[in-house]
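User: Can you help me understand a structure? I only have the sequence.
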Amino acid sequence: MARQDALRAKGRTALILSMIGLPVAAIVALAVLWRTGQEPVGGTEGGTGPSAAEGAVTGMAITMILLQVVLLAGPALVVDARRRRRDLALVAASGGTERHLRAVVLASGLLLGGIAAVGGAVLGTVVAATALPILEAVDGEPYGPFRMPWFQVIVTMLLGAGSGVLAALLPAAQAARMDVTAALSGRRDPPGRSRRGWPIAGGVLVLAGVVTALAGVNVLREFGAAFGAAAIIIGLVLASPWIVGTTGRLAPRLALPLRLAVRDGARNRARTAPAVAAITAAVAGITALAIGGASDFRQSQVEYQKKLPMGSTLIRAPRTGADEVERAVRRELPGVPVLPLRTLPGPGEACMNPDAAPCPALSFVARQDPEGLSVLLDKVVGGSREARMLLGRDDPAVTSALDAGKVVLFGAKPTDGATTTARVFVWEDDRQRTVSQVEGLPAVAGGGDPGVSAIIPPRIAERIGLPVRTTAFGVDRADHRVTKAEEARLDKAVKPYNQNMDAVYVERGFTGSFGGIMILLASVAGVLALGGALIATSLATADARPDHATLAAVGARPLTWRVLTMGQAAFVAGLGCWVGIAGGLVPGLSVARPLTSTPEEMGAAEHGTIIDIPWTLLLAVGVLIPLAAALVAGTFTRNRLPMTHRVHS
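Assistant: Let's start by predicting it. Here is the structure, written out as tokens:
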């Protein structure tokens, strides 16, 4: 019976398969990509496995996905059970017991859940295999051989199949309790009694979640907000029947079709509340993620520090092969002046001595600026040309100092105002040992932040005695501004010699964008909200055919029937979206505190907690999604009103 019914109702079957299969596919794809990324190209096992935090977050994500599946697929299976009332009543009239009726409905959930789990696992594997080369191209490094995490895949498939059975529990219980005589005669069952304790438990959970989200971040950081969000969402799910019923009090103020739609949803909470709860849970989670992500993005924007003057370019050279890199750069930028940048070894620079001797490093004795300095290169040997390229302008004071043979310090000042000491040291047994010192070097403090700690005239570098090597090549913005196409060609030409991600760096300012993530979040919210609203509308249409027949009998136009259906979809989607937005605000605001309160970029100034609420996204979710649900429902509504015989109970 389950197989035959699935084949008869192909549209509803495809909808249920998608609701269960797509979350399974998403989890499987992420698991495959993560497992593949853990295996390096060399073949030895890399990584140490997921951390406890990653495991907890993954578990919560899977739990929320399963909750969505049950809440969305459950009403769809209720639609199936309502549509099959006569068939089920015939089974009961033929001697079937309540156990048989439950088994018939549960078999549908198991069949559809099993097919969706297998199909979702296959789809997720294909998606991961397709996305792997794209991710490798974006990241610029291979992930490793393709590997299947069979344990995670099998567990996900079992959860997917089990979620189909869980979603069928409610319609199975309803089928077992139905009035066989009423079903055979076409009458509807009376609505079940509402559980008064659920709204109270839901309110308690919401309050506990708010407290956990606001106070828990002080101890648990992101986990406090995550646990608070879970409690708020579960509380709203439990309270959704009460919310639906309370909202029904607004019906008298609406036009007739909308009044009927809201009243119908409020009176039949058993079919309206699950869809509203599913939309609420999805939108609440997306709201919290959107606020946290937007705040984190805003922090990155605030803390961004330019490494070079706007429009200048730096191409790093490896320790060996600088000449090949220079030829490649000049070949890709014909006629463009390319400036070799030579440096002395700084404290953090590595070296490769063939005799395994300690690596010498240079530091200048000076008063350091407490605000710090962003260092792109350490100590550059050169003159006015190098200074102009690094500063982005001609600085007469710096140029005259270099021409006079003085060391120009940045982010520091000479101790006596006129001279400094060059100290050469090595690290031995985690301690610095001074090798030599050159005292009395003329020095001045330079203004600005050129990304280097000092510019040293060549004759001073000779006095210090350390080897000078070419570590990078610069393109001054005054000579040429590298385009994105030229940058891509340079990166490809330099990659054989330097595999680092920042081998070619063009200063374009902060170019990050949160728009793609916003569109993704809005799309996910839209799909889930539309699915829930259309399921609830479909169930209401199947359940209210006698009411629609009454409308037709009293002369209602087809437009009234269409507006009624649109109102039902808009009511479910709008209520779920706005309750979800309200439920996700507190967790989103609380998670922004541990994410943004501490600067992440070295040298960034203290800024406190940064909060950025993406109002455009939230308004789009709260306004456009209900409108879209109404338009879709109205588009697929039949123009002809059903003319059926009204049976009086």
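Now, to help you interpret it: The first helix runs from residue 2 to 8. The longest strand covers residues 431-446. Let me know which part you'd like to focus on.
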